[in-house]
Specification:
Blueprint (H helix, E strand, L loop, with lengths): L7 E12 L2 E12 L3 E5 L6 H8 L7 E6 L2 E2 L5 H7 L1 E3 L12 H7 L9 H6 L2 H20 L15 H13 L5 E5 L7 H16 L3 E5 L3 H7 L2 E6 L2 E6 L1 H5 L2 H8 L2 H11 L2
Helix pairs in contact: 3-5, 3-6, 5-6, 8-11
Length: 270
């Protein structure tokens, strides 16, 4: 967990976007620090994925700023953001099913490779060495997510939960300082969710900032250093798991039912 005095790696300042006159985000502000797990929660339609899409350059902001390591990156396309250290996964699987598991991860390394068509055609030693290093790094990341034994299997033959972890490994292959995970536990069974819990905490422990959108409230409350709550495109509140789970506004808008409240409170020990 990062300290309060640690400089922000990612800052979102008064971010807004409108679609056809409907303000999907309205002045959202927060900051995430190195090695922090920051979760963004809220009811369906709160603007969570829209916020992810604006930060990651898929949508253009109507107003506000996104700063990465103190530099304004608002509106940069995803590949430029990846070069600067921001990577993400998506709610829906974005996997190359016909490629092997390790090849999927190797794809994520391309932004760090020297590309010279002639050298590749001639199979020069520099290219051979680069390909070897890329494969070795990809295998390390597969070890991290528990998929090393399946490295040479076709990705299309893998179970859904494994594919979720594969996407995380590929995102890590870009060597991000900020990793954004959009619903990583969606569709996962309890065992797969526990595995994700450990993986996410290991990633943050390595110094990478993790920004998480997730509906599994128990997972969020267990692993988050800081939580931002959205409702109707606006920030409803933020704080630690304990602070958020006992905030009357958050309980009314999102934690909702007594059973859900009790589950969240039980996780954080309140």
């Amino acid at each position: 967990m990062s300290g309060a005095g640690t400089p922000a790696v990612l800052e979102v300042r008064e971010l807004a976007i409108a679609f056809g006159g409907v303000r999907a985000l309205d002045g959202v502000t927060f900051a995430a620090r190195k090695g922090q797990i920051l979760s963004i929660i809220g009811p369906n339609g709160a603007g969570k994925t829209t916020l992810f899409n604006v930060i990651s350059g898929i949508y253009g902001a109507s107003a506000g700023q996104v700063l990465l390591a103190g530099k304004d990156v608002t509106g940069l396309p995803p590949h430029r953001l990846a070069q600067r250290g921001l990577s993400r996964t998506f709610q829906n699987l974005q996997v190359f099913f016909q490629m092997s598991v390790i090849e999927n991860v190797m794809v994520g390394r391309h932004i760090h490779e020297r590309r010279n068509l002639l050298a590749h055609m001639l199979g020069l030693p520099s290219v051979v060495g680069q390909n070897k290093a890329t494969r070795e790094r990809a295998l390390e990341l597969l070890h991290l997510v528990g998929l090393a034994a399946s490295a040479d299997r076709p990705a299309g033959s893998m179970a859904y939960g494994a594919l979720k972890r594969l996407e995380i490994a590929r995102a890590l292959a870009t060597e991000p300082s900020v990793l954004m995970l959009d619903e990583p536990a969606a569709g996962c069974n309890p065992r797969e969710t526990r595995e994700l819990d450990e993986i996410i905490q290991t990633i943050a422990g390595s110094g990478i900032t993790v920004i998480l959108v997730e509906h599994n409230i128990r997972l969020v409350m267990k692993i988050s250093d800081h939580i931002v709550v959205l409702n109707y495109g606006r920030k409803l509140g933020e704080g630690s798991a304990t602070e958020v789970s006992t905030d009357p506004k958050v309980i009314e808008a999102y934690l909702g039912t007594e059973d859900t409240q009790a589950g969240a409170l039980d996780v954080v020990g309140v």
